[in-house]
Specification:
The protein is α/β, with parallel strands linked by helices. The protein contains eight helices and nine strands. It has a five-stranded mixed barrel.
Length: 258
């Protein structure tokens, strides 16, 4: 009998590469797959859409994770069980600093743990940080492509509407205090998956990093479809693809298993 498919992603190890992109949306997964050589749709179950193709002659995979940490964690675990050792989130973020403008590429060098999933993997004192080589590869890619970018701390939160509409929540004062503290500490952006990716990756012993596009200017939150040119997503995708190419080439030079 063949290998049993994973419970949620509906995939087997022979269907995916060791290098994986992790967007949130299924739409972005399809856009990323367009950059692969010979992409093939592998599976689509719930929020998890998976394509596999090649980059630099090496199998690579993209799997959408849905929104937030718990579903992203499922994808990371099941892809790891299939042999993946390098995972990169490609997504969107909101600005929390004048340093980040709408359309800027955002490359986190650490994440505020304003989420709960990571606590199931590592103690709260453990930092949520990306792999340094991947971080360098992404920054080099952004420079090469000429896209405006920021390397900074991201805030990973568990609830979209407690940021977008905090004043409507019973715990508003606590949210306001924490949010202002993060901003005073220099956090430049926020999204919902980075800390989880970094922490789960650390617990599994795999490399992780993230590259995102800022969907807002600082202090301005509105309807993305109206104010956010979706074509700017390609900036983050292009940086992610180039960054992953650099990692693959480095691994080849180092004799690492592909």
């Amino acid at each position: 009998m063949g290998e049993q498919k994973t419970m949620h992603l509906d995939i087997t190890s022979d269907q995916v590469g060791k290098y994986v992109f992790l967007p949130g949306s299924v739409e972005r997964a399809a856009l990323i797959a367009e950059h692969f050589d010979n992409p093939v749709k592998i599976a689509h179950k719930r929020e998890f859409l998976t394509y596999t193709g090649t980059l630099e002659g090496v199998p690579v995979t993209v799997t959408s994770t849905g929104i937030g940490g718990p579903s992203a964690c499922i994808a990371i675990e099941e892809l790891h069980s299939c042999g993946a050792h390098t995972m990169m989130r490609v997504g969107s973020a909101a600005s929390t600093s004048q340093k980040v403008k709408i359309g800027d590429v955002v490359i986190p060098n650490g994440a505020v743990r304003m989420e709960g999933t990571g606590n199931h993997y590592l103690p709260f004192e453990f930092p949520a940080v990306p792999d340094f080589e991947m971080l360098k590869a992404l920054e080099t890619a952004a420079l090469k492509l000429g896209h405006p970018y920021n390397v900074g701390i991201t805030i990973t939160k568990d609830s979209y509407y407690t940021e977008a509409e905090p004043e409507t929540k019973p715990v508003y004062e606590e949210l306001k205090y924490k949010w202002e503290s993060y901003i005073k500490g220099g956090a430049t952006n926020t999204s919902m998956e980075c800390a989880v990716l970094f922490l789960v990756g650390a617990s599994l012993g795999i490399r992780t990093a993230s590259v995102m596009i800022s969907a807002t200017d600082f202090g301005q939150y509105s309807n993305d479809a109206k104010d956010y040119p979706s074509g700017w997503e390609q900036r983050a995708i292009e940086v992610g693809i180039e960054g992953m190419r650099r990692m693959i080439r480095k691994d080849k030079a180092d004799g690492m298993s592909m």
